[in-house]
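In the design runs reported in the main text, the only information available to the sequence generator was the tokenized backbone. The following block is the verbatim input for one such run; it is reproduced so that readers can re-run the procedure and compare outputs position by position.
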């Protein structure tokens, strides 16, 4: 299996320590920069209020199979939201603010600066909740 980044996330968070545990708690604006070869794929995305952003948490450990969530007991990593996991795929539902060319401005994203972007999908309340 090969994943090809379609862009990069630009954020004020320069390290995992600076990033919020959950993006929904942050009002900071992040910028999703889509690479030129994928720019045409953005057509129509501006019609949505929210988007799903999938990204690769490139600074996470991949050898973790058990994790201890904040305030909880240690358990299997797949029953947690830990960024440390065999395939560190990040998932955020973001508020779409505006689209300018290949740049998407969003809120509620907890990714650090330079995070590889895997995919973007529209969030549709009726089918995603």
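Verbatim output:
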């Amino acid at each position: 299996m090969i994943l090809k980044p379609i862009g990069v996330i630009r954020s004020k968070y320069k390290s995992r320590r600076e990033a919020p545990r959950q993006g929904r708690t942050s009002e900071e604006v992040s910028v999703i920069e889509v690479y030129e070869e994928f720019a045409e794929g953005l057509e129509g995305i501006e019609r949505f209020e929210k988007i799903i952003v999938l990204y690769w948490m490139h600074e996470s450990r991949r050898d973790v199979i058990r994790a201890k969530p904040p305030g909880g007991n240690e358990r299997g990593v797949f029953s947690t939201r830990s960024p440390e996991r065999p395939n560190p795929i990040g998932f955020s539902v973001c508020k779409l603010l505006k689209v300018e060319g290949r740049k998407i401005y969003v809120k509620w994203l907890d990714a650090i600066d330079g995070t590889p972007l895997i995919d973007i999908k529209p969030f549709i309340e009726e089918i995603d909740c």
